[in-house]
């Protein structure tokens, strides 16, 4: 059978690195299978190898409630705390010896895989731990995840959890390709992996070099007595279980394992950020149980961020869309956590001053959890005798205007908002970005070309563009590695651009407001403003004091809004956008019934939850509820988490305010 034949070649290629047929022949077989499945869908198998190629488009991922909450792990950076953990475990279990499984802590994206009757039926992201996104079609394209498991002993239903990672080699190549295509590079493999599994088109996911390591088996009945046995079984069933693990009954051996991997992680082909320690025996795990957030039978030891020393070659300055100046360190390229680092953000003038940086210095760079590497110290012993103090710029590096820095401000700003090129381009780039007007047929490179050709100076100019203006425009683009390519606007590109711009006219008012790029007005603030002022005229007329009354609008935001609405250029721009047909009022009834489940209800959130309190508050708002800080007669519900203070409870009871648990809250919204 065709699908069996293709699966055979897949196995040969991926498991044994062998090839019996050419790529061309393989593609032809696959095309034949896809065609047959289209013609006779009733015969398409649930684990067909064609699923690896993708093809499903997912506009919105469905939210799925986890069968078992996806908890996090308690973590520590200290070996002493691991010894404490060991003591605690032994005390609770009343044992003087406990076996632990030591595993690598993969630095990627967690995934939950559901199998029924041997078939992969669902793949769900972690989400908020209680519910996540259904990303099944995308996950099916990852070859290290079995689409079906064939073994006579498999349970009817079971769940496996693991981590999706993008190995270094694939990451570097993939980023190079993105840069060549004029797209932004991903900052690290974790971001690339998480961006990939959330893509709408699964055939694109199929092209991303993703891998999945599994590390946890769940199910109503366990298929073995211990975690290590389960992992062995998973391996037999065809899952990708990492070889790098060990079972120890002595905490000193555990510490040795950690030390070894802290050093050897540099040689691994993918990122890890620590070691996970798990009590091996399932009965013991059960006895230890769980806290609200994590199992008491496991802990993760996190490695300190990797550091490397290199030379500071120069400090250059970037001008953002709001005119903020960001100094950037240009470094002698150095490998750090598997990727090459050439630049580091220096944030602002004070940061440079506090470090005492001088050009030519030998510096220590670190890549922590954050995206951009940072310089943490200067090696003064290696400073050259001729090195001189670094002088911060006084004028905009792009337009030459004298920079301003108001009291209390961290950044210097270029005040030339209307004529400074990166500010103009930055504003348009922000305007078209995904969270704003989402015009994905345009991008940084194309905006640059339109600006260079003097066609677009402001977002409103986009709506005046017509196909003949664009056809044939061309530009040579210099890639990061110095190579060049030519970007030409051909007919198809032009059609897409015009369509993207025209479609954006349907974007709701809160998106338009965010897209305008008013300083400090982010996507959430824009929503809050629109909830109170559903049309532009009212919002523009709102006084500083009125604005302050809007939830989460403070002095900084109110001042910035008033400044923008008093600026004649800005008012003119809004007028042009309105004339072009953009939405300047929100159709409040547009919100679906689904999203309005908590309409108008006020909540007080107190205690510790399975997600952060901010996350919980966001969910309340998403469903139309209101967050209030103090309990009063008007409060509708108190959501009580772990460790909530007794005073809150008494007050709620006194005022007859229903006290609900996190679970009960979730039931209200699902
Ligand atoms: S076990 C209930 N094992 O780390 C415990 N997690 O901070 C389930 N992770 O959400 C997790 N490598 O995404 C486990 N070998 C490993 C892991 C691992 C990476 C991630 C996972 C989890 C997070 C917890």
Shape: globular
Structural class, from secondary structure content?
A: alpha+beta
Bound ligands: 2-(butylsulfanyl)adenosine
Q: Considering DSSP H and I runs of 4 or more, what fraction of the residues is helical?
A: 25-40%
Q: Quote the beta fraction.
A: 15-25%
Major sheet: size, sense and barrel closure? 5 strands, mixed
Secondary-structure arrangement, i.e. CATH architecture of the largest domain: 2-Layer Sandwich
Overall residue-averaged pLDDT value: 89
The domain tally reads 6
- CATH topology-level fold name of the largest domain: D-amino Acid Aminotransferase, Chain A, domain 1
Termini Cα gap: 44 Å
Given the structure, what is the number of helices? 25
Radius of gyration (CA) equals 28 Å
Task: Describe the overall structure.
There is one protein chain. The chain has 670 residues and is an alpha+beta fold. It has six domains: 2-52, Helix hairpin bin (Helix Hairpins, Orthogonal Bundle); 65-302, D-amino Acid Aminotransferase, Chain A, domain 1, CATH 3.30.470.30; 307-382, Nucleic acid-binding proteins (OB fold (Dihydrolipoamide Acetyltransferase, E2P), Beta Barrel), CATH 2.40.50.140; 421-506, 5' to 3' exonuclease, C-terminal subdomain (DNA polymerase, domain 1, Orthogonal Bundle), CATH 1.10.150; 509-590, 5' to 3' exonuclease, C-terminal subdomain (DNA polymerase, domain 1, Orthogonal Bundle); 593-669, 3-Layer(aba) Sandwich (Rossmann fold). 35% of the residues lie in helices and 20% in strands. Strands 2-11-10-3-9 form a five-stranded mixed sheet. It has a five-stranded antiparallel sheet with strand order 14-13-12-15-16, with no helix packed on it. A hairpin with a 2-residue loop joins strand 4 (109-116) and strand 5 (119-125). The longest helix has 17 residues, at 23-39. The protein is globular, with a radius of gyration of 28 Å. The mean pLDDT is 89. The protein binds 2-(butylsulfanyl)adenosine (IVH).
